[in-house]
Description:
Structural class: alpha/beta
Distance between the termini: 21 Å
Number of strands: 15
Low-confidence stretches: 314-320, 509-518
Largest sheet: 6 strands, antiparallel
Amino acid sequence: MESSKLAADLSITADARLDGREELIAKLPRAPETQNDSELILLAYETWGEDCVKHLIGDFAFAIWDSRSRRFFCARDHFGVKPFFFTYVANNFKFSTNLNSLRTGSDTLNETAIGDYLVFGLNQDLSSTTFRDIQRLPPAHTLTLHNGSLSIRRYWTPDTSKEVRYRDRDSYVEHFRELLQRAVRDRLRDRVAVSMSGGLDSTSLAAVACEVGADVHACAVVYDELIPDEERHYATIAANHLGIPISYVVADRYSLFDEQVRGDMDQPEPFLLSPLTAQFHTLLRLCESHSSIGFTGYDGDAFMNEPKRRRLKIRSTLRRIAGTRSPEPALPEWIDESFARRTNLLDRLKQSSMNTVNADERRSMRALNSKVWAPLFEGYDRCATKLNLELRHPFIDVRLVEYLLSIPTDPWCVNKHILRVAMKNRLPPAVINRPKTPLAGDPTLQLIRRGSVRWLDSFEVNPQLKSFVDLSLRRSIANELTPDGLWASLRVFALNYWLTHSQLIATDDQVNKNRAYQTSIA
Length: 522
């Protein structure tokens, strides 16, 4: 995080990248003396006070100290791309984008978050962390600390009431193309590395980046043997068409929880530990070797791949006629019973199971309300990757998202129709016409079936793990009966690893003060 001052009474600490800077500057009563994004945020605060967030778009986490009113005002961007953690204990307020820099070395764990991780894979409360005394500011929220009172409020909710209607079809595509180009240009410097599969989303970003004059290098994860995979084929076609170089990470070469570089497995929270961590971090290092800025195609699916309403309703009706009922939710048998009671884990699992999908709700709204985005973005953050690489996500642009929510779903947001039309003559037909194609198999399952995984069962048990898991009831990985059961069992291994190494992680981060900035007020 960087610090700036405006006169003597306002100062800011921020990790910020603003979009739409020209529009913001035009609305300010006086032109800024510099092009620094932090100072633009300060000027916006000076102009609109806490309503400044209604005028800001981009990826940001910041804290403003207003000495006139002795007030801290903090905010996190709309989608949670930038992390923001804080503690407020005994009237002492500290904040940071790096969770570990707020740790004391004798931290009490948040058992509810641990239970959520073991059962759901993610913390279900976006305002908490794995540590009891460290909180997380949720996306699209502000925090105000004044006179000893701390208040948190939501400043943005997607507006689904707006409707954009054009008389001619070309106008829909032209407006979309303009917004996508602005989203890409605002996130660019002169060079960019694109995490590019052979799918439509990431190849489209590479095409637009080339179109606006960037030096683009594509990086792709491919499987040549482990599973049937055509990403190398389609990514190569796209790269050749665009005339850009492409480098490959051959994922077949890595095993589960493979730590190719020391520190890849040392993560602030357990949910950031992936069995496929080696592929992920190798890809990011490859991107870093070409640029300090990387693009991902996340999450074009959420906004442009809606199912056909009629087909979805027919399925729902057939299920009702057939009287199909979901099985009663149950915790994994290896969850410690007393731990489950302390955290009401079964009740929370049942409540989650009751939150059934509304057939009339758009997939985009379900995605925006999900618990997945903020943790995913935190995994891309430099505090987690430890790289000089900032990952940016052009499809997660407020202007673009709000436009896609306002246009007719059918046909534009079904099967990515609007993107396919917009990319006509910009990408090869083979890529444009390629159906949405998920991986043809689960690499983790294949690695388990093909290799010895006894080490995932015979690890040295951390004493804390016994408070959460009864290992005598845990099947061996090779004998797990279902994919869900397998993934849950892998989380036991990951949690044990994290419990064993988390103390060392905190110590290392506290020594390396350059990884994050924090301050306090008593």
